[in-house]
TrEMBL record, chains A, B:
GO terms for cellular component: plasma membrane. Its EC number is 2.3.1.20. Coiled coil: none annotated. This is Diacylglycerol O-acyltransferase. Residues 7-272 form the O-acyltransferase WSD1-like N-terminal domain. It catalyses: an acyl-CoA + a 1,2-diacyl-sn-glycerol = a triacyl-sn-glycerol + CoA. It comes from the Bacteria. Residues 316-458 form the O-acyltransferase WSD1 C-terminal domain. One of its GO terms (molecular function) is diacylglycerol O-acyltransferase activity. GO terms for biological process: biological process involved in interaction with host; glycerol metabolic process; response to hypoxia; response to nitric oxide; triglyceride biosynthetic process. Belongs to the long-chain O-acyltransferase family. Pathway: Lipid metabolism; Glycerolipid metabolism; triacylglycerol biosynthesis.
Amino acid sequence: MVTPIDPTSAAFLLAENRNMPMHVGGLQLFKKPEGAGRNYVREMFEEMRDVEEIAPLFLKHPHRSLGTAGQLVWQPDEQFDIEHHVRHSALPKPGRVRELLELCSRLHSTRLAWERPLWEAHIIEGLRDGRVAMYTKTHHALVDGVSAMRLLQSVLSTDPDQRNMPAPWGKRPSRSGSKAVEKAEKSLSDIPVQALRTALGITAEAAGMPGALVKTLSKGLRNETSALSLYAPRTIFNQSITGSRRFAAQDWPVERLRAIGKATGTTLNDVVLAMCAGAMRTYLIELDALPEAPLVAMVPVGLNAKQSQLASADGGNAVGSVMVQLATDLHDPADRLARIHKSMQDGKEGLSSMTPVQILAMSALGQAPAILTPILRMQGIVRPPYNLIISNVPGPKTTHYWNGAQLLGTYPLSIPINGMALNITCTSYDGHMAFGLTGCRRTVPHLQRLLTFLDDEVGALEKAAGV
Amino acid sequence: MVTPIDPTSAAFLLAENRNMPMHVGGLQLFKKPEGAGRNYVREMFEEMRDVEEIAPLFLKHPHRSLGTAGQLVWQPDEQFDIEHHVRHSALPKPGRVRELLELCSRLHSTRLAWERPLWEAHIIEGLRDGRVAMYTKTHHALVDGVSAMRLLQSVLSTDPDQRNMPAPWGKRPSRSGSKAVEKAEKSLSDIPVQALRTALGITAEAAGMPGALVKTLSKGLRNETSALSLYAPRTIFNQSITGSRRFAAQDWPVERLRAIGKATGTTLNDVVLAMCAGAMRTYLIELDALPEAPLVAMVPVGLNAKQSQLASADGGNAVGSVMVQLATDLHDPADRLARIHKSMQDGKEGLSSMTPVQILAMSALGQAPAILTPILRMQGIVRPPYNLIISNVPGPKTTHYWNGAQLLGTYPLSIPINGMALNITCTSYDGHMAFGLTGCRRTVPHLQRLLTFLDDEVGALEKAAGV
């Protein structure tokens, strides 16, 4: 059955090019269960591959032809081949995390071909410490990054003894914990008039450039509303990008970060931002490329139902954005953290005082910067509205398992775009805060050094906070 | 610099779709040199990747836009990224040949994206016997299968002590053994009026359906010339195909096959065909799908300069085709070999009595069955003109090395097309005859069984021949 593609998904498909693939990724690390045989990874791969029925979301691909009057539609893949989508891979020796990140970088660089359903999953063996990795890749036209991660998590269980658990792409009866699939499905095209759809509708309108909305946006970006009143300097991150990707990831105990927040009267999110700020300062100084003015990050924040004026059903999904000054001009870690805390507070206040349509417009910005960037450029806004996006998406707090394999960590891979060559997405899981850094390899050299600098910054903040 | 794409290459690009990728592949197995360290494969990969300058053939990609008036042109890749093209991969455990063939099947199934130069090379570690594998993939619009293999071989040396040898895609000064690159380059568009180009021109004309040539072709295929006067029954191989590929490969000592030929008064090529015939008979019987009438193979044969009426420069490249009856209706291996020998002789005689244009038309057929198939269908030829293509391409007779690594074997991966779901390409190297079987996984189930049957057939032929 051919179904229409909603305008936002279509925009993600059409905005895509070789330099700007529009898929989100996830890297998950598992510990083999007790008593796993030496063919464990192959068995895990086979379980993932041999699903009885695939969920419709994973069976359709975009199609455009004379028969559809040139319109993009979703079409079921009549020759769906699970072997193309679920793959068993291995790391070259010595099988360190470095080799894993190299493989993920490579896999994340390649576009998904429209002629097949827009997803891939790689079950990866060969880590010398015996862990098993899974890299997944899903087009943004199907799900956003948060939904993709929730989808992956939706099949996990807190029970280490549970077995016969489905693969994330398997079709499940709607009662048995398949909310994420349902939600992802719903967010596409099936819902009539609903909360999320309204927000998405605005992005679509923006892509079509209706005068009033663009005016609202550009007004905001011209410092005329408080939530957007920051000046972002030009940096190496704000250039055109190529199609080469580098991915780096690491996690730190939430306890350590929370202790810093407690001692300084700041939030966990403030500490995450301060880590990024300090790491980026060191990184840019080393490249002799630190601008005088402090960097500005766009930080998506959750909106409550009142703020977003959304119907209750999907209200929790609404996201607004705050512009946060990263204080990269300050030498002292404690000063940086304090300024970030203040900037975040100001931004949130500004956000609450915004009109609903402004909030939704910001929400659209957060979801579709690639679509809006050309519009902004047409409006004569030549300096970057912000330097990078830093997202922090809370995940499950307890240990989860897939058929007895313990999920040790989960790391998001996001979408760099022209003018925004680095993306930092954090997610917490089971007491750890995971950082996923995705960048254009040519524009952001030696991306992996940022991991060292992030680690240094945790130490510096602890010292400054006296914990 | 934008350069035009010659009509044949354009036809290969345009004929391509998800079910019919138009790239040829090669699998090469190497033995590590004495004293290789444990990072040997990584070092080999790095040597392959870090070439100083890439040959132009490997830098261009097809492009079509308003600026080119909708015409396909070659365009240099301004953002060429060697990391996208040369990759370091590893096999899952237990690292048998089976895992290697699975990986090659998977890599061979995916289309090359037009937005980048149309090639990939994978340096593969993880074979448990310590061998190193290299899988390469090149679009048929750049080179045909034979040229691709020669290109790979052109960088090898017979001297195990030679070092500092280039990668196949590195730019080399034209004197130092880069004839294959040159030839591949030349065969594209740069040569004015020349032998090969004439042959290619005919295919192009055929794609444009000039009356006279199509008449020649269809006349031939309607049993009106001796070289084409065979009836090919319908088989499972002659169906529409999907985009899933299976690749199987193995080699046998040329000595064994030659001994059979000697004892029976047949050629090495006859024995190769008899092996295929016997294996296919067993395979089809097992599937209860053996047709009563014997299968017919199209076998490309080299043409001498007189036959092909080509100028001396590139004359050696010309290829004609013989239709060979595979005698799959006969139970006895010796009878099959004898009938194949006779059929091959008849075909070659028919070929020498063909007019030059007929020979060139057959040559075109051999090079571009995908292009001609729709034409044949339009001409009302509904039964398959032949059941499969079996090529036998002679390779180097002596041991070759790449920077001290001994080439142990080299196996071709070819292009199944609609109506021709299985392709068998053989190549000899260093005393071994290698068989590469490429098929559509759905249309040709359990392809790898053919290897066992091929091996059985060698034994049966030896017994029949009394060697």
